[in-house]
Design goal:
- The chain is mostly helical.
- It contains 21 helices and two strands.
- The protein has a two-stranded antiparallel ribbon.
- Strand 1 and strand 2 form a beta hairpin.
- It is globular, with a radius of gyration of 22 Å.
- The two termini are 19 Å apart.
- The model has no long low-confidence stretch (mean pLDDT 84).
Length: 481
């Protein structure tokens, strides 16, 4: 494993985070709220450390191996967590553990928060920036590093037909730049939609960043406070864009053919699931006379999009909804968006592959001599990919139930522990509004918060990368001792 390569990559990331801290610092000069040293000290520390690490590092090889990729993923989220927590601690808003929880939640775009009351606007902007950077980092890592580590779980199959996936560092850099351009362009588009919907400039900037990153953590995250149809439509558009495959968007622009969107089986399946669940919820709410028919459709479809995209915006008070509707929303958080999207969850493509594999197995049972294969968008799915997705399905839900028990062991009621575990692994903090703490993470014990931090990182690392880092570390210790 090349240590100098890892140092070079981590040094670049440190410099990037130091530069990002300068944005809220400049905003503080315009709106002097809070303490400026909350941004000056972390920015100086990260820029100085990043410059020093870059001198120690180098690009000794042109390829990024599996071990370098897995360790870089783990170190990336540790550095992001450390950099994101410093402003909260220095400003005096949060203690060390709560600040670490807040930072990890932001960078993993979970949207769970330990902040009580209002924050200074520069610090609020920093939180939105960390959420936006978390979504961008996840997308760049997804098309550069993740295929080297966990491409066996369907990532390489989903993205390899539309974009160059290669362990060569030069090609990885070009691919990452393309995704960053798409991500930035979508942010600007969503920002303009919010401006047209009537939001003020500061709110529109923050809402655009947290909508595309699917974090949904903002003081006015309940659209009930606005109760404006144009704003809800802008949010729905943003959440749908954030649920789609960014690589597919790049391919549409490259080929200048918008019909590629409708030809994509994963996107059509996602839209079908959202439409069906939204209709079920709307009809059930109307049947129980919660709302009239118009509002039932309005809120049913809005919340279906919100939870399927793992954003978690609330247009109404969901705590009073019937159990059936809350359960449907809870299941949507596990399905999530498309592979190649900032949205969390298990991903639609993997579910589509598993369903087609199940139906193919049923046909093979009826006709043992029939040769069957699974294809998506005209591309045959190798049997190895199907088997690996089945393994990932087991790992995903095994981790979910294991951490649910750990959270319950820390003193949380079992039903609440289920909501918290789902929120952390799916990157969907609003899941606790359905089952759990009603969004109150402040009152959780230190042990519970520590467990949640680990689970949020696990969910963003696609689990396998963490296991690979753990296995490599254990082997290294064994070889030394």
């Amino acid at each position: 494993m090349s240590v100098r390569l890892l140092l070079f990559l981590m040094g670049r990331l440190s410099v990037l985070l130091g530069g990002a801290l300068c944005v809220p610092l400049l905003f503080y000069l315009w709106v002097p709220e809070g303490r400026p040293e909350a941004f000056v000290i972390p920015a100086a520390l990260l820029l100085a450390a990043g410059g020093g690490i870059l001198r120690l590092g180098d690009l000794p090889k042109t390829r990024l191996g599996v071990r370098e990729s897995s360790f870089f993923l783990g170190l990336t989220w540790l550095l992001l967590a450390f950099a994101g927590m410093l402003p909260y601690v220095i400003d005096g808003q949060l203690g060390w553990l709560d600040a670490a929880f807040e930072s990890i939640s932001n960078f993993t775009t979970t949207g769970a928060t330990c902040v009580v009351g209002d924050m200074p606007r520069p610090l609020l902007l920093w939180r939105s920036i960390t959420e936006w950077l978390g979504g961008l980092s996840a997308m760049v890592l997804l098309v550069t590093v993740m295929p080297q580590v966990s491409g066996i779980f369907g990532i390489s199959f989903a993205l390899g037909h539309t974009i160059s996936l290669s362990p060569m560092l030069s090609r990885m850099r070009r691919t990452g730049v393309r995704i960053a351009k798409i991500y930035t362009g979508l942010t600007v588009l969503i920002f303009l939609c919010y401006i047209l919907a009537g939001l003020e400039l500061f709110d529109a900037v923050n809402w655009a960043m947290i909508t595309l990153s699917t974090s949904g953590c903002y003081p006015t995250d309940r659209l009930l406070a606005f109760h404006r149809m144009p704003l809800e439509l802008a949010a729905v558009l943003g959440m749908l864009l954030a649920s789609g495959n960014l690589v597919l968007y790049w391919n549409v622009l490259r080929c200048r053919d918008i019909r590629l969107l409708w030809r994509n089986a994963e996107l059509k399946t996602f839209l079908g699931i959202v439409a069906a669940c939204g209709l079920f919820i709307a009809l059930h709410l109307w049947y129980l006379q919660f709302y009239d028919f118009r509002d039932s459709l309005r809120y049913g479809f809005f919340q279906a999009v919100s939870f399927a995209s793992t954003t978690g915006y609330e247009a109404v008070d969901l705590s009073v909804w019937p159990d059936f509707d809350k359960y449907v929303l809870f299941l949507l958080t596990f399905i999530g968006g498309c592979i190649g999207a900032p949205a969390g969850g298990f991903k639609v493509l993997r579910i589509l592959v598993l369903f087609r594999a199940a139906f193919a197995e049923m046909r093979r049972t009826l006709h043992p001599r029939m040769i069957l294969h699974i294809s998506i968008d005209g591309h045959s799915v190798p049997l190895e990919i199907v088997v690996d997705i089945l393994g990932f399905f087991f790992l995903y839900f095994a981790i979910f139930f294991l951490f649910m028990l750990l959270i319950a062991f820390s003193g949380v009621p079992l039903l609440d522990a289920m909501g918290i575990a789902a929120a952390c692994i799916n990157g969907m903090g609003a899941a606790t509004v359905l089952y759990g703490t009603q969004g109150d993470f402040v009152s959780l014990s230190a042990l519970t918060k520590s467990i949640c931090c680990l689970l949020m990182i696990l969910g963003k690392l696609e689990i396998f990368a963490f296991l690979l880092v753990l296995q490599t570390s254990v082997r290294a210790l064994r070889s030394r001792w």
